[in-house]
Please model this.
Amino acid sequence: MSQPSFTRLSELPEELAIFPLPGALLFPRWQLPLNIFEPRYLNMIDDVIQDTRMIGMIQSVGGSKAKPDVAHTGCAGRITAWSETGDGRYLITLTGIARFDVKEELSVMTPYRQVVPDWAPYEADLKDVPDSKLPDRSRLVSALHDYTEAHDMSTDWSAVDEAPLETLVNALCSGCPFSVMEKQALVEAPTLKDRAETLITLLEMDVSGEDGGTLQ
Model:
């Protein structure tokens, strides 16, 4: 599937199917593989694949399993790879397009939930991050070094050094075992530099043993 280039907020959908899932983070230009097996979300994939191919990934933050409470901010992604397994599951890859705030949840007949997204706060997500607004790699790598040492984790430091900075930040945000609310702070950080600063703070707090609750 080809990936269209979205350059204006007006090109984004006015209604959006959402997939509430704690701990699964999507960011602009970041890819998230998903294994879809619940009937309501299989139905969602069937519907969106024929339309915009866009899904809003958003963290669930409590409530019931049938209808969890969701965070205020998520990130929309477009299905850029899709396959069906022999046992009826869908394996998809979402490529992040832009974040959104939930303006309103719609009353719908579909088994999956839909919202009216507010894209306006995240117009910059549609543009590549200029070099002048990139975070400090050395500070991030230093914090990561202390974190992996404290947890006795092996790390491919050559891959860390060679990865594009945005890719490195997003990979660490997605892969580190932070709490749901800590991960939500990463999603809501206004810019990539802010996201990196929040990430560094979380890594440093973990190493020092501080409570991360202040980021909620």
